[in-house]
Amino acid sequence: MSSIVNRSPEKAQAKPDACLSVSRLCVSIRDPEQRDTKGRPLSSEMVSDVSFTIAAGQTLGLVGESGCGKSLTAMAIVDLLPKPQVYQSGGEISFNGQRIDSNDPKALKALRGKKVAVIFQDPMTALNPVQRTGQQIEEVLKLHFPKMDKSQRRQRSIQLLNDVGIPSPENRIDAYPHQFSGGMRQRLMIAMALAGEPDLLIADEPTTALDVTIQAQIVALLKKLQQERNMAMLFITHDLALVSQVSDHVVVMYAGKIVEQQDVPHIFSQPRHPYTKGLIAALPAAVARAPKTKLDAMPGQVPSIDAMPTGCRFANRCEYANERCEQEAPELTAHETGEISCHHWQTINEASTSGVSKNV
Amino acid sequence: MSDALLEVKELHLHYPLKKRHLLDKPSAFKAVNGVSLFVNPGETLGLVGESGCGKSSLGKAILNLQTPTAGEVWFQKTDISKLSNREMRPIRRDLQMIFQDPYESLNSRHTVSSILEEPLIIHSLGDRNQRRKTVSALLDQVGLPQSAANKYPHEFSGGQRQRIGIARAIALQPKLLICDEPVSALDVSVQAQILNLLMDIQQDMGLAMLFISHDLSVVRHMSDRIAVMHQGQIVETGNAEDIYCQPQHDYTRLLLDSIPQIAQ
Ligand SMILES: Nc1ncnc2c1ncn2[C@@H]1O[C@H](COP(=O)(O)OP(=O)(O)OP(=O)(O)O)[C@@H](O)[C@H]1O
Ligand SMILES: Nc1ncnc2c1ncn2[C@@H]1O[C@H](COP(=O)(O)OP(=O)(O)OP(=O)(O)O)[C@@H](O)[C@H]1O
Ligand code: SF4
Ligand SMILES: [Mg+2]
Ligand SMILES: [Mg+2]
Q: Any bridge partners for residue B95, and if so which?
C-alpha cells in the first residue's frame, strides 16, 4: 500500500498520521437468483483489493468510469452498504488508527459519534422529503453540538445555507426539499454534511448538478474548511478538471480495481495507464471539435460483474492488450510518483515519450 | 417561425408561497417569468443558466407536468398548456423528457424492463415479443448490459440510472425531447457515447431537442442555438458559436470564465 502522507511534506508535517486508511477493501454483491449447490445465493465481487490512505488536511480524488465501484467504496467506509445484498467481503478500514469497518465486531460503535460526514450522490435518497430543510440541518447540529440552543441552531443553519450559496436562506429554511431545484438540493446536502464539522468528508459527485460558477464557490468553501480545520477529504467525481483543482492525489478505478494512483501534477502530465490516458484524451478541452460532430467515445464497455475476465479487466478496450493481458491480471506496482497496474506500462510510456509507434 | 415544432409564448410558472400571517396577501415565487422561445423540427436549442434560475421548471411547464400559471405552449399547432392529463396522453408520445434526478423519476418498485415497456404498453406499440426486442435494443443503445432488464433502479450506480431514464425517454421515438442535464452525472467516456447517441437519433428521426445543461462546452457542442436563462427569464439567445465567442450578457460571460481547466 502506498502512502500519500509523505508525498506532500509541507502539509503532512502538521499531522502526519493517516486519517483514513483503507486496506485491500472488497465489496461483493449477492445475486438472489443464482444459488450454489447448497442453495446459498452466489455473490460476485464488485470492488476488489482497493487500498489508499488520506492524511488530515489532504484530499484524495477518486475517478473512474460510471459503475466502476466508486460509490460502493464510499458507502463501505461509512458502513452504509445496502446489506445484506451488498456487503464488505474483505479488507480493513481504519479512521485515526481505529478500525471502523463492518468486518470488525467492535467497529460499529467506534464509528458512531466520529466526525465523518458524507455528501451522497443522489440528494433525494438522503434527504427526508417530509421534513423541512431547516429541521434536517438542525438535527445534525443537535447530534454534534448538544450544547447549542434552539435559536443558535437556527442561526447556524441559516449561516450554513448561506455558505453554500442558497439565496435568501432565511426564507428557504422552512421549505421542503422538493421545493428546491436540483442544484439547490445538492447544496443542501453539502450544508448538512458540513454542519457536524467533520474531520473526514466523503463527497460523492458533490457538484454534478451545479453550474461552474457555484461549483467554484463550493470548492473554495471546502478548501477553506480544509485549511481551517485540517479536514481530510475523499472527493469522488468524473470531472477530471475539477479533480485536478481539489486533490493532492488521484486514484483511478476501473471495473472495481485501482488501475493507477499518482499525485496531482503527475497524473495529468504523465498519465501512465492506458485507461487514464484515454480519460484525459476524451476531455472536451483536449480536442477542439466542430459542433454537432461525433465525439471520440472510448470504444467498448466495462465488463459486467458476472463476467469479469481473469486477466486485465481493461483488456477488451485496450489498444496495447496482448495474450498475457488476457490471461494474467496485472498487480499494482510502485514507481517514483505513484502506483500502476499494467503489464506493459514501461514499454507503453517509453513509446509515447519517444514518439515510437504503439506496438507493444 | 410559424412552422416551428414548439413555440412557447410568454410562459409563466409561479409557485405559491406560504402566507406567514393570515392577513398577508397571497404571493408567489416566479420561477418562470414570461419566457418565449421556439424550436424548429430537427433542431437543438440549448438552455443554460445558473442553478435555481428556472430551467427544470420551464421544462416541466412546457410538458404540462406543472400547469403553467399563464402563457401558451404551441406544439405541432396545438396549444397544449391548458390540456388535461388525459388530453395530453396522445401528445406525450411525441414529447418526452429526460429528468434531471433519475431517482425521483424512476419507479423504484418496477424492474428496468417494465419501466421501459410501460410507455410502449400505454401507446399500444407492438406485441409482447416486439416489446421485449425494443427493450433489449434500448439497453444496447444506452450502453447497459442485457442483464440490467431484470434489476431494480436501486441496483444501479448514479450514471447507470441516468441511462435508464434516457432509454425510457427515447423508447417512443418522440419528435421533441427535453433533456434536463442528461449527461452531468456521467463520466466523459459514457457522456460521449450518450451525446453521440442523441445526435444519431436526431439524424435518423429528425428529433428536435431542448437541451438543458449547466455545462457550456457540452451545450455548445450539441446546439444550433443557445438561450441563456437568468432569474426566470431568457436574457440572451443566438447562434451557438456567437454566444460562445461573443457573449453579451454578464452571466454568460461569467459562465464562460468559470469553466474549470486542468490545473498545471
Ligand atoms: N444495491 C445494489 N445492488 C446490486 N448492485 C449494485 C447495487 N449498488 C450498486 N450496484 C452495482 O455495483 C456497481 C458499482 O456501483 P457504484 O454505485 O459503486 O458505481 P459508481 O462508480 O459510483 O458509478 P457512477 O459514476 O455511475 O455513480 C454497478 O455496476 C452497480 O450496478
Ligand atoms: N415545487 C416547488 N415549489 C416551490 N418552489 C419551487 C418548486 N420547484 C422549484 N422551485 C423553485 O423555483 C426555482 C427554480 O427551480 P428549477 O428547478 O426550475 O431550477 P433549475 O434552473 O432547474 O436549477 P438547477 O440547475 O439547480 O437544477 C428555485 O428557486 C426553486 O427553489
Ligand atoms: S495490462 Fe494489458 S490490457 Fe491491461 S491496461 Fe495494460 S496493456 Fe492494456
Ligand atoms: Mg456513484
Ligand atoms: Mg434543474
A: B176
Residues with CB under 5 A from ligand 5 (ion): A 181-182; B 56, 100
- The residue whose CA is least distant from atom 19 of ligand 1 is A67
Q: Three-state SS for A101? A: coil
Per-residue model confidence as pLDDT tens digits over B126-138? 899 999 999 999 9
Query: Mutate which of A27, A276, A292 to test chain B, going by most B C-beta atoms within 10 A?
Result: A292
Neighbours of A208 (CB within 10 A): 25
Domain locations in chain A? 272-284+295-360
Looking at ligand 2, which atom is closest to the CA of residue B55? Answer: 21
Cα–Cα distance for residue pair B235/B36, rounded to 1 Å: 11
In sequence order, which residues have a C-beta less than 8 Å from that of residue A127 and are 6 or more positions away? A133, A136, A177, A185, A188, A189
Using CA positions, which residue lies closest to atom 10 of ligand 2? A179
Compute the average pLDDT of residues A310-314.
94
The DSSP secondary-structure symbol of A46 reads E
Q: How far is A208 from chain B (nearest CA, A)?
A: 6
Nearest one of B52, B21, B58, B17 to B36, comparing CA atoms = B58
Q: How many CA atoms lie within 13 A of A326 on its CB side?
A: 7
Ligand with minimal distance to A215 CA = 2
pTM above 0.80, yes or no: yes
- Between positions 55 and 84 of B, the ones with CB within 8 A of A are 55-57
**Cis omega (within 30 of 0) for bond into A146:** no
What separation in angstroms does the CA of A214 have from each of A117, A167, B216, B247?
21, 12, 14, 19
| Helices B128-141/B158-170 angle, 10° precision | 130
pLDDT tens, residue by residue, B61-85: 999 999 999 999 999 989 999 999 8
* Residues A34/A41, Cβ–Cβ less than 8 Å: yes
**A305 or B19: which carries more pLDDT confidence?**
A305
B97 vs A contacts (CB less than 8 Å):
none
